[in-house]
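Human: I would love a firmer grasp of how sequence relates to backbone shape in proteins. Could you go through the record with me and say what the backbone is doing? Here is the record:
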Amino acid sequence: MSGHSKWSTIKRKKGANDQARAKVFTKIGRELAVAVKNGGPDPNNNAKLRDVIAKAKQNNVPNDNIERMLKKAAGDTDSANFEEIVYEGYGPSGVAVVVEALTDNRNRTAGEVRHYFDKSGGNMGNPGSVTFMFSKQGVIIIEKEDVDEDTLMEDALEAGASDFLTDEEEIFEIRTEPNDLGAVRDELEGKGYVIVSSETAYIPSTYTRLENEDDMKRMSRMIDSFEENEDVQNIYHNWENIDEYEE
């Protein structure tokens, strides 16, 4: 059951500078708005909203900001215009890329996404052209410090986790079925574990190793472009050796 967490090297974390934090807050605010519109403002009756609130707290969004976002979402009819879209394509040397967007202008976002693919030497594909190489799973990250691996593994599996992986250095990674993410997260938090992040993610089933430095540069810059775009909520890819690359 326990193994090396290759996903931890794929899920690159950005430095928490003010500009990056502001973008994260904006994106989470958009997710909160859509969750409220689709399921109501009460997190006790809206599982998706509970998940987004948990994500906000894990990204250090202050409670006051979360409350303001919720109040705004409850009275904001414009958020109903946001649409969830998944884009697929290939980066340099055939790296598979999945992009989750939340947009109020499908044409604008599609044009920008296509531009990022083209600029990197890749290409945007049709629906289904890439996602077959990924599986949608819940991913819960817990830091290793002061945590007993065997106890956590037992607690996670009892809570309904489907897999348990360990990073070589810093983290434990718990996998769940997408619909079980919230329940597993809540049970582990109830037992005192500190959750670094919990979210559904596209997990690659195969990986592509880049050997050419130019390809690495183009792929890294493409990821940056996606992450800086406010319409893009998440980007997933199967670039295997990203942890070995430094621009």
Summary: The CA atoms of residues 4 and 166 lie 5 Å apart. DSSP finds eight helices and eight strands in the chain. The first helix runs from residue 7 to 10.
